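ok new one. same drill as before - structure tokens go in, u give me an amino acid for every spot. 139 of them this time. try not to just spam alanines like last time pls lmao
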């Protein structure tokens, strides 16, 4: 039998089958494990160092370059960005999505502690922190 023949000869049966298909479709749709905005933020670790009274050029050569060289060999680093301002240095490391943020932060802490004695004595100790994308205030 063809579906159209059944629908013509038994319209109530066809309507019930159609309603059952709609209900099953709605239930299946509500149980889909799909997110509209999945969490794909890459793991980011930042290093901040305060060097009071130092010019941006001095901060770059004596702090930022030392830190960049120290973290250059860490596994899974996708992007390194840094900024040097008067009295402050900041280095941000973005890792690949497959890298665990906890182990990445520990590797960065280890690398920074190995070069801490090469930083100027006047500079504050480096602060290593995990950065989350939704932690910044958006106005």
């Amino acid at each position: 039998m063809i579906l159209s023949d059944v629908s013509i000869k038994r319209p109530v049966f066809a309507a019930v089958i159609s309603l059952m298909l709609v209900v099953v479709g709605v239930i299946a749709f509500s149980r889909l494990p799909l997110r509209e905005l999945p969490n794909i933020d890459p793991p980011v670790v930042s290093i901040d160092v305060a060097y009071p009274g130092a010019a941006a050029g001095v901060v770059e050569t004596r702090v930022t370059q030392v830190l960049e060289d120290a973290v250059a060999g860490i596994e899974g680093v996708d992007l390194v960005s840094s900024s040097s301002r008067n009295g402050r240095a900041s280095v941000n490391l973005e890792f690949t999505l497959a890298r665990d943020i906890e182990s990445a932060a520990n590797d960065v802490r280890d690398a920074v502690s190995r070069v801490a004695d090469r930083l100027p004595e006047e500079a504050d100790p480096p602060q290593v922190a995990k950065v989350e994308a939704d932690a910044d205030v958006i106005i």
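The radius of gyration is 29 Å. and btw The mean pLDDT is 87.
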